[in-house]
Design the sequence.
């Protein structure tokens, strides 16, 4: 899955370059309760639309054992519209 990357300021960080600690940090903060597959899907969508999960431009929401919901915030929509 090397085509999926995260944007960090102006640099792009490939997912396979993320450390296990960085991945766990993202799972604990912006993608709470995500399985590995759900997390990969979330990162793929964030990259596809150029959205930053830490800037709250895209959200991962999951309650208990339900299916996750991935939502774009107002700022995310504005970013997409401006590009």
Sequence:
């Amino acid at each position: 899955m090397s085509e999926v990357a995260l944007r960090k300021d102006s640099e792009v960080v490939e997912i396979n370059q993320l450390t296990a600690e960085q991945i766990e940090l993202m799972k604990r903060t912006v993608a709470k309760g995500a399985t590995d597959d759900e997390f990969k899907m979330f990162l793929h969508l964030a990259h596809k639309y150029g959205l930053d999960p830490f800037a709250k431009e895209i959200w991962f929401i999951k309650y208990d054992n339900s299916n996750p919901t991935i939502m774009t915030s107002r700022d995310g929509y504005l970013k997409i519209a401006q590009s």
In short: Confidence is low (pLDDT under 50) at residues 8-12. Helices lie at 20-29, 36-49, 74-82. The radius of gyration is 12 Å. DSSP finds three helices and four strands in the chain.
